[in-house]
Amino acid sequence: MAFTNRVFSGIKPSGDLHLGNYLGAIRRFVPLQEQMACIYCVVDMHAITVWQDPADLRRWTHEIAAAYIAAGLDPERSIIFNQSQVAQHAELAWVFNCVARMGWMARMTQFKDKAGKNSENVSLGLFAYPSLMAADILLYKATHVPVGEDQKQHLELTRDIAAKFNNDFATSIAAGGHDAEFFPSTEPMIAGPATRVMSLRDGSKKMSKSEISDMATIYLMDDADEIAKKIRKAKTDPEPLPSEAKGLQGRPEASNLVGIYAALSDRDIDDVLREYGGQGFGGFKPALAELAVEVLAPQAAEMRRLVADPGQIDAVLRNGAERAREIAAKTMAEVRDIVGFVR
Ligand code: TYM
Question: Is 265's pLDDT higher than 90?
Answer without folding.
Answer: yes
